[in-house]
Amino acid sequence: MSGVERLRILVVAPERHALRQPHAGGLEAVVWNRVRWLRRQGHAVFLCAADGSDFLGAHPELRLPSPRWNRPEDASDSLSPRGHEQRMGEAFHRVRHLLATGMLPVDVVDNHSLHPDPILWSRDLGLPVVTTLHTPPLPGMVEASQRLSGREPHRFLAVSQFTARAWSQAGVDSFVFANGVDADQWRLGPGGRDWVWFGRIVPEKAPHLAIRAALRAGAHLRIAGRIGDVTYFTREIEPLLGGGIDYLGPMSLPALSAVIGASAVALVTPVWDEPFGLVAAETLMTGTPVAAFDSGGIGEVLAGMPATAVVPAGDVGALARAAAGLAGLSRWGLPRGRIRDAAAARYSLELRHREIERVLSVAASGSGVPALASADVVGTAVGA
Predict the structure, then answer these.
(1) Angle at 349 between CA 343 and CA 354, to 5 degrees
(2) What end-to-end distance do the CA atoms of the chain give, in Å?
(3) Based on the number of CB atoms within 10 Å of its own CB, is 113 exposed (0-12), middle (13-18) or buried (19 or more)?
(4) Which residues have CB under 8 Å from 8's CB, separation 6+?
(5) From CA 244, how far away is CA 242, in angstroms rounded?
(6) Strand 381-382 and strand 174-176: pairing?
(7) Which end of the chain has fewer CB atoms at under 10 Å, N or C?
(8) Can you tell me the distance from the alpha carbon of 222 to that of 86, in angstroms, rounded to the nearest whole number?
(9) Where is pLDDT greater, at 190 or 71?
(10) Average pLDDT rounded to a whole number, residues 139-164
(11) Looking at the predicted structure, is the pLDDT value of residue 77 above 80?
(12) What are the backbone dihedrals phi and psi of residue 183, each rounded to the nearest 5 degrees, phi first?
């Protein structure tokens, strides 16, 4: 147990996917690791998450409904089926009742939900709430934040300066708190000759552009991840498979780490305002170089890191040239340990979690949120 007093923490997860391996995305991985670490530190952690998640306890009210799709091809990471929003509202009403009646006594809420309701618990129940902003501004969450008077025990954190600025422009001020990577799970790898792309297979992540870059450079590319948009995969990815382009499917973390660590270079190809870009930090932890599009917070994640290249978003030719150059470095004995050391110094999960433990402790005490360490990564207030 750390020097921080033992807390009763309600962690509210992003509600669309269950928190379990293989993770549906980086957001789910971040929260899964948070719960695991806080419990190891001796805190009483209750999880409110999609049914089927790890770490769920005895309270059925904390089990949230997942989207129910009539056809697999209709499944989407961005849309909801008919009636789902109503079911979610009813589920959060049950959680609110559990908290209001004292049947679930907690000291602080660690909120990662993309639903507006948990934001208002600080106003309606007087509960300290720390909400982390993992996405571009969402209208419902912005509207909920505008219903706060500013006197509630509530604090917003954002995963990058880029994300904090976007929310500030929408009227929500926050402190910057970068995501972390577990060095014990993302291990140093030996490198290799193949290129790799991993993440959610959806249009905004644009793995089809990674394929085009690899084809242009004559490189073999391995793709790993969950198909989040079946239509997109069928139309844009499947026809390009074969001939050195391989789809590995969703993978457990140890297997995925081994694949990334045995690659010459990883391609990161968002064509939307990427809030953070956890795959870039995870890749560096394995010692593998990264070539990426300059979208959203990606440039922040890679700024000053060795063996990285950031090119204009959507420029397949520039991506192919940058990746080929980095892959060439790998063949000449790139110091992969130095890449990992730099990633660990900035994105160590242990550092990130000790900081958030302190934030939650101070929030629970009612004395505000402390200054955070490592100002180049965390602790900068945007708009506040």
Answers:
(1) 130
(2) 33
(3) buried
(4) 43, 44, 46, 105, 106, 107, 108
(5) 5
(6) antiparallel
(7) N
(8) 40
(9) 190
(10) 95
(11) no
(12) -65, -25
299-308 pLDDT per residue, tens? 999 999 999 9
Residue linked to tokens 């780490």: 257
- Identify the residue whose tokens are 């790898």: 189
Q: How much is the pLDDT for 76?
A: 66
| Whole-number Cα distances in Å, 276 to 158, 204, 347, 374 | 9, 14, 12, 17
Phi, psi of 44, deg, nearest 5? -85, 105
Angle between helices 349-365 and 26-40 (to 10 degrees): 70
Per-residue pLDDT tens for 208-242? 999 999 999 999 999 999 999 999 999 999 999 99
Residue 24 pLDDT? 85
Strand partners, 61: none
- What is the distance, to the nearest Å, from the Cα of residue 143 to the centroid of all Cα atoms in its chain? 23
SS (H, E, C) the chain: CCCCCCCEEEEECCCCCCCCCCCCCHHHHHHHHHHHHHHHCCCEEEEEEECCCCCCCCCHHHEECCCCCCCHHHCCCCCCCCCHHHHHHHHHHHHHHHHHCCCCCCCEEEECCCCCHHHHHHHHCCCCEEEEECCCCCHHHHHHHHCCCCCCCEEEEECCHHHHHHHHHCCCCEEECCCCECCCCCCCCCCCCCEEEECCECHHHCHHHHHHHHHHHCCCEEEECCECCHHHHHHHHHHHCECCEEEEECCCHHHHHHHHHCCCEEEECCCCCCCCCHHHHHHHHCCCCEEEECCCCHHHHHCCCCCEEEECCCCHHHHHHHHHHHHHHHHCCCCHHHHHHHHHHHHEHHHHHHHHHHHHHHHHHCCCCCCCCCCCCCCCEECC
Closest CA to 118 of 134, 136, 105, 99: 99
CA distance readout (Å), 84 to 66, 67, 88, 164, 232: 8, 6, 6, 29, 23
Complete edge-to-edge strand list for the sheet that includes strand 63-64: 63-64, 44-50, 8-12, 108-111, 129-133, 154-158, 174-176, 381-382
Confidence at 379, pLDDT banded by 50, 70, 90:
very low
Residue 372 has pLDDT above 70, yes or no: no
Closest C-alpha among 331, 340, 189, 326 to residue 259 = 189
